[in-house]
Amino acid sequence: MSAPAPILEAAGVSYSYPGPTPTRALEDLNLQVRDNEFLAVLGPVGCGKTTLLRIFAGFLRPVTGAVRCAGAPIEGPGAQRGYVLQEEAIFPWMSVRDNVEFGLLAKGLDEQARRAVSDELLRLIGLSSFESAWPKELSAGMSKMVEVARVLATDPSILLLDEPFGALDAQTRARMQDALARLWEQRRKTVLFVTHDAEEALYLADRIVVLSQRPGHIKAEFPVDIPRPRSLESRFSPGFLALKRRIWEATGNAGA
Amino acid sequence: MRAVRIRRAIVALVTLTALYGIAAEIGFGRLPTRIWMGSHYVDNLKLLPTFRQLGEEGGFLLESRILPDSVVASTRRVTLGLLVGAIAGILLGLATGWAASLEYLADPWVTFFRFTPALALLPLFVVWFGYGETSKVLLIAASVGVITLLGAHDGVRRVPRAYLDAAASLGAGPGLRFRKVVLPLAFPSIFASVRIAAGLAWVTIVVAELIDARMPSLGYLLALSGAYPRVPTMMIAIATIGALVLLFDTVALLLHARATRWMRRAG
């Protein structure tokens, strides 16, 4: 890969979960994410996608190889890499607004400054009227959007999203994908998006890398040249469908 | 929902009280008044006192200030012991739950003391802390401390990793994670243990008040009424302790409900 330097980089990364029968999750994985790129990592369930993301988030250390963020080795979690977990991680004991403001509280911003940011983000995700609601009162899709907004509040340069819409029904999923696409078009962050859904990856990403089955390594890569802003029409355009077919073929004989 | 529960509780109480009243009236004049106590006979016994008899006894206990003074003295001890024990237990439990190295140190001791009854510690506490208030309060504090330590420890340990990871990746340091993530999530478990401990504190006081037994004290009142024996006094003392346990439990429950509003579903 030429020109712009990668903002996220994994070089020769291997990872095994310790235990009586160690599980090799990743093996000799090389990946570069360019600045402002929306990269989707696509792979079957259990191929090490989440492991890869947790390594980039700083919660796991590769057994061999190196991970770097903007050239510096990743040594732990950091607010410049906003991480949305696969599990539901909205804080149920805080109001929606307090959830969104949590990262700003950690930064030590005063109430007024926090409020300005959360006002804007709540408007952006369309949840202004839910500011003082408890997370229990939200639908699954809404609470995932609050989690995304909570991460965006600290204005990280990179977003690490782990199947954020995995637990949603198809309709909500499509709406959330639209919301995320709009957010990304406005904010232009570097996004590393993990999913097992080829259509989701195609709809959102600039580039898709396909992970093999465990131990995961990259076995195919597809640039997505579908014009933005994407819409329902894009999902049924010939280019989209042709690419989807090629990705299907690449993932279909996974492990081979 | 809450009104229904209160109504049901009142119905249950009134029904049982009424049934007792009926049984006592049936037994009045029919039950024996003289029983063999192993070494001597006891006369003028009221095995199942009627409400009138209970009323007379209650009047005497109130008028002589025996009951009110005992309630004040025992409540004071329980409250003090509960406070000291809960504060120490919760702080220790939070520490052992949060820091893995402390758990390592604390674990065998917690298991050791978990099932040690307060009664077993009683002689030791008397020797260590003397016959005064201190040993009574500390005995309660000890049993409360063990329970709340476990409650706080488990509460911290059960915090899902996802929340801690999310907080850490949002830039929260250990202090903020502890205050804003661990504490609120551990709270229900802590309060559940405080509720149990409050009940246990009242169990312990009856035992603790046999140290340096003297009035006023509910535990000693109960012991004295057993020695005579004087059934109406026993019943009033038992009912008073029961009512105080209920009162403590209600207060704990209200505090708990207030601090865990987020757990309840909307609507």
Mean pLDDT of chain B: 85
Give the count of helical stretches of chain B: 10
Q: Which percent bin holds the helix content of chain A?
A: 25-40%
Q: Would you identify the regions of chain A where 5 or more consecutive residues have pLDDT less than 50?
A: none
Order of helices and strands of chain B: HEEHHHHHHHHH
* SSE arrangement of chain A, N to C: EEEHEEEHHHEHEHEEHH
Distance between the termini of chain B: 12 Å
Task: Give the CA-CA distance, first to last residue of chain A.
Answer: 25 Å
Number of strands of chain B: 2
Name the average pLDDT of chain A. Answer: 89
Unreliable residue stretches of chain B: none
Q: Briefly note the structural class of the backbone of chain A.
A: alpha/beta
Principal-axis shape of chain B equals elongated
- Main beta sheet of chain B: strand number and arrangement? 2 strands, antiparallel
Please give the radius of gyration of chain A in angstroms.
18 Å
Give me the Rg of chain B, rounded.
Answer: 23 Å
Query: Which secondary-structure class do the elements of chain B indicate?
Result: mainly alpha
Within the largest sheet of chain B, what's the order of strands? 1-2
Overview of the molecule:
A six-stranded mixed sheet of chain A has the order 6-7-8-3-9-10, with helices on both faces. By secondary structure, chain A is α/β, with parallel strands linked by helices. Helix content of chain A is 36%, strand content 25%. The model of chain A has no long low-confidence stretch (mean pLDDT 89). The relative contact order of chain A is 0.18. With 267 residues, chain B is mostly helical. Helix content of chain B is 78%, strand content 1%. Chain B is built from ten helices and two strands. Chain B has helices at 2-27, 51-63, 66-98, 100-114, 118-129, 133-157, 161-169, 174-208, 218-227, 231-259; strands spanning 35-36, 41-42. In chain B, a hairpin with a 4-residue loop joins β1 (35-36) and β2. In chain B, α3 (66-98) packs antiparallel against α4 (100-114). The termini of chain B are close together. The model of chain B has no long low-confidence stretch (mean pLDDT 85). At the A-B interface, β6, α2 and α4 of A face α7 and α8 of B.
